[in-house]
Amino acid sequence: MARFKITGGTPLHGTVQISGSKNGSLPLLAATLLVDGEVVLRDIPDISDIRTMIRMLKALGVKIEPREDGALSIDCSNITSVSAPYDLVRRMRGSFYVAGPLLARFGEAQVPLPGGCVIGSRPVDFHIRGFKALGAHVEEKYGVMHAKADRLVGTRIDMDPRFRSVGATVNLMLAATLADGVTIIENASREPEVVDCQQFLAACGARIEGIDTTTLRITGVERLTGTEWSAIPDRMEAGTFLIAGALTRGDVTVEPAEPERLRIVTDMLAHAGCDLEMGERSVRLRMDRRPRAVDVVTAPYPGYPTDLQPNTGVLMSVADGTSVMEESIFDARFNYVDELLRMGADVRVMEGAAIFKGVPQLFGAPVVATDIRAGAALILAGLCAEGVTEINGGSLVARGYEDITGKLKGLGAQVEVLPEADPEIVDPECLP
Questions:
Q1: Angle, helices 22-31/192-203, rounded to nearest 10 degrees
Q2: Which residues does 4 contact at the CB level (< 8 Å), separation at least 6?
Q3: CB under 8 Å to 204, separation ≥6 — which residues?
Q4: Is pTM, for the whole model, over 0.90?
Q5: Strands 13-17 and 63-66
Q6: Does 117 participate in catalysis according to the annotation?
Q7: Taking Cα atoms as reference points, which of 49, 48, 36, 76 lies closest to residue 60?
Q8: What are the two backbone dihedrals, phi and then psi, of residue 339, each rounded to the nearest 5 degrees?
């Protein structure tokens, strides 16, 4: 397992280039399974989760070639299998996205159930109920979902309004694109990454009404055709670097970025005392003081993103005053708090919430990352801590952040990667 060694106390200064969205690229890659012809995807991040999805598509018979300009050329004309390998699905829950398009285009999908998750329960029940509502015969046996349908038939699907599941919205939207008739999905996710996938499908010939709303009306078509598309910038990466600038009392610009889609994050940072400047495709943050306490409640978009909750918790841990964080989406998202306590934070976790009594200073310590976002949060904690912080589990961070250590060094951070490998965390075949 790779380790990060961080010497804190250096203000970050400069501009950082944000990669294409991880959460947006996975649905785009899965959606190419619906397309009869070549698709060219640009700005797909070079991270291990994306490599896992590419391996998944190749295992199904998809031809994927990198182009000289960095784009991916994807051809799904000759799919040879509708069975997703368990070894890949277990590595990344986003692999389950292939179920909907396989079922819709080829009438069958065999996909292992992804199982548990360290940040909390994320069942695929909503996906399976939706497939059944669309007319598929679904069996779950020996840990595998086996779904069949001569052709899916449009229907009405009401999803849980409390969660607006991203995964279920994507999978059912992909399935409905080639279904016979009209499918209405109520309480659909409005996350920008889902909207980007909707717009991609429309560019390929899908008939989707209600894009960027919670009610989708999808009229099935016979086939989709290829197009070129660019993934949106990663707003979680942009938010991470902005919070890093705030924590280190630095001057950080993120680009390309979509300021409107980052509005709730930049509003929080403004309340914390940061100076922010919005460009057309950039955000600049300047901070020269200890942050003020803030209160945050995570919620589906346009609410505060749960993926930035751990980073925001680090900000709260050193803020002047008491902050309250309420987590409404993932029941175990606070698993990073124990590691912050080792660094001197004063945090009390209750059911669904945490109270942060800000301390003037965190102190370096050996800590462990348990997931992508917790790992990023501990990196941020190390950047503002006194002394040296060593983070085990760095390979988990590489699942969601492209060259995070290189980008931090470019801003002046003192970060080292200690070369170790743990085959349980990173499969060498996933590496370039």
A1: 30
A2: 379, 382, 389, 390, 391, 394, 397, 405, 415, 416, 417, 418
A3: 31, 34, 35, 39, 224, 225, 226, 227
A4: yes
A5: unpaired
A6: yes
A7: 76
A8: -75, -35
| Structural domains in the chain, sorted by start | 3-19+233-430 (3.65.10.10), 22-230 (3.65.10.10)
Query: 153, 176 in Cβ contact below 8 A?
Result: no
Is the distance from CB of 229 to CB of 60 less than 8 angstroms?
no
Q: Which residues contact 105 (CB under 8 A, 6 or more apart)?
A: 33, 34, 79, 178
How would you classify residue 350: left for phi > 0, otherwise alpha for psi between -120 and 50, otherwise beta? beta
List, for residues 263-311, the tens digit of each pLDDT value: 999 999 999 999 999 999 999 999 999 999 999 999 999 999 999 999 9
Instruction: Find the mean pLDDT for residues 123-138.
Output: 93
Catalytic one of 117, 197, 274, 430: 117
For 59-118, write each residue's pLDDT tens digit. 999 999 999 999 999 999 999 999 999 988 888 878 899 999 999 999 999 999 875 444
Return d(Cα 293, Cα 315) in angstroms, integer. Answer: 9
Nearest to 175 by CA among 128, 142, 215, 143: 128
**Which residue from 173, 188, 201 is spatially nearest to 104, judged by alpha carbons?**
173
